[in-house]
Amino acid sequence: MAQQVPLDFLGDLRRTHSCGALRAANEGQRVVLMGWVYRRRDLGGVIFIHLRDREGVTQVVFRAECDGNLHGKAEMLRSEYVIAVEGLVEARTAENINPNIPTGEVEIVAEKMWMLNTSETPPFPMEEHVDVNEDMRLKYRYVDLRRPHMQRNVMLRSKISLEVRNELSSQGFLEIETPFMTKSTPEGARDFLVPSRIQPGNFYALPQSPQIFKQLLMISGYDKYFQIVRCFRDEDLRADRQYEFTQIDLEMSFPQEEQIFQTIEPLLEKVCAAAGYTVKAPFPRMTYAEAMQGYGIDKPDLRLPRFWPVEDLFPADAGLTREGLPLVAIHIPGTGVLSRKERDELKDYGRERGLTVYDDPKRLERDFPGVIEKVRERTGAGENDLLLLAGWRDEPKGQRPEETVYQACGQLRLFAGQKYNDRHKLLDPKDFRFLWVLDFPMFEWNDEDERWVAAHHPFTSPKDEDLEKLTTNPARCRARSYDIVLNGVELGSGSIRIHRQDIQSQVFSAVGFSQEEAQARFGYLLDALTYGAPPHGGIALGLDRLVMILAGETSIREVIPFPKTAKGTDLMSEAPAPANERQLRELGIQLRRPQG
RNA sequence: GGGGACGUAGUUCAGUUGGUUAGAACGCCGGCCUGUCACGUCGGAGGUCGCGGGUUCGAGCCCCGUCGUCCCCGCCA
């Protein structure tokens, strides 16, 4: 228990400044500060405390010689006590200036102090330099959020949201809300369901995104909509995935892709500027096919160089890869000479993914004289760089077999890049490399269900010239979709939508919905498309991921005030929790007991 | 659903081949200290070694199970 300390009332006392505001220019002013006791240094006759609020830290000094009663009261102060202090701003002498804090030129000589509240000893240190296990931080999140590190992240998030609203509003976008209690959509992620009390047995679903509603808003004539909106997906959690996450969602009428890019690029310029970084539009662009052929992934990290197909440089019968499949040269700069063990690790990693990895260019040079020189020329790999060749070992796999090879090579490239990042600083987190990826395929093959599923979502328009491939060759049908990628992270995803009912029906049927099914699931959208739906399209950016990267974090939990654990638990409130019998009865729900 | 890492004082960690009374730092409590700013100094308290079972003369350490946190795969239209 905290010691018994007589508390004071706040009354009509007001702050004059924040704890981060005072400078030498304020010398001599009478001020009132309020905040938390960050650190206390009791030197006997004089007590220093650092008083903290979200704006910063200011030193307050209590001198016994000036006021014995006040000094005695200050002796009771402990970490995280909440106090108000009135006193005079005094300039510190040159040797006493603290260069580590912005208010370090001054201190407050306390004349009055109000003890507003005590605090238990915090469950973990408030200091920034101390790492604490995440479960402790989440259990006492209200304390963790008080630490300067989290306060910076939360404030940065607010700043970025404000910047988004300002920029989009100034571009003529309207902020419009859409419902959270809506209808379950098939495909996509698992929905969170909300039972209806008035209609037992019926359920609302929380939106995985406001997709259909924003399309309906376009049909309703609200050109240029945006929303900073919570989305819900019941899938397993990760460092960059939570059940609830926030999208910067927008949609416009009559756009070409170009207009979406021209909306987002200045937005991201402004957002980065708000975080203190300069990025320059236009961002580079590449097609999905180029991304796969150069990086083996649809979200290339441009901080590492691309890989290159090089099978054409070798004799046709070289046998380094399966016939008809690519041989890939992977180049990681500046790694220097790797040990036997390190190279074996790379080979093993590739082998587990179906690749045969050739890690020794000299040996290949012996078997195929002159070829490595050409490979180095194509890749730009120097003598001090890592150069790996990778071919496919097994039977060709998948509907787009060359893609399977590129994907494995892409994983190997990232594995190697990240592995040597620490040593060689290949991946600077403050080197922001935005990228547009265009022309995704319309469909991906789902092995489990043995059918095509929409790669983006089933409202994405096929490219005009690929329209007939919807039925004839779905594997090669391209979509008018685009992703914005930042340093290997998918930041956002969008598309030009289908605005014609006939095409929408074709797409539903391509992903295996019967007419009746499509009507039951999306009848209202199909109907709406018949009432004058304009061409429209948009995009949604993951706000959590954006803030995460700009804050230099590697988990979105660091930029979400109250996140859940990997098992979906809130360690503070202990949600989820059982519903009581009365709640269940009202909802008409009977629990199915686990077997046994 | 699968793989991996971790769990010891309030916190962060160490703990040898299985062997005496489980340690350190920070924090906390008390004393001293009038210029500190991660104050200093002297002293003190603080442990269900996540939980349950097993092996053993003996378990923080070995085995089985279980719970929790983190990372990855699957999953994420």
Give a nutshell description of this structure.
Helix content is 29%, strand content 22%.
Description:
The protein has helices at 68-74, 134-139, 141-144, 148-170, 211-219, 257-274, 288-295, 340-352, 361-367, 371-379, 401-419, 421-424, 469-472, 501-510, 515-529, 543-550, 581-587, and strands at residues 30-42, 46-53, 56-63, 82-91, 106-117, 174-175, 193-195, 203-205, 225-232, 244-253, 285-287, 308-309, 328-332, 355-358, 386-392, 434-438, 443-446, 451-454, 481-486, 489-496, 536-542. It contains 17 helices and 21 strands. With 596 residues, the chain is α+β, with helices and mostly antiparallel strands. Helix 4 (148-170) packs antiparallel against helix 6. Strands 6-9-10-21-20-19-16-11 form an eight-stranded mixed sheet, with helices on both faces. The chain is globular and about 95 Å long. 29% of the residues lie in helices and 22% in strands. The protein binds one RNA strand of 77 nucleotides through strand 1, strand 2, strand 3 and helix 2.
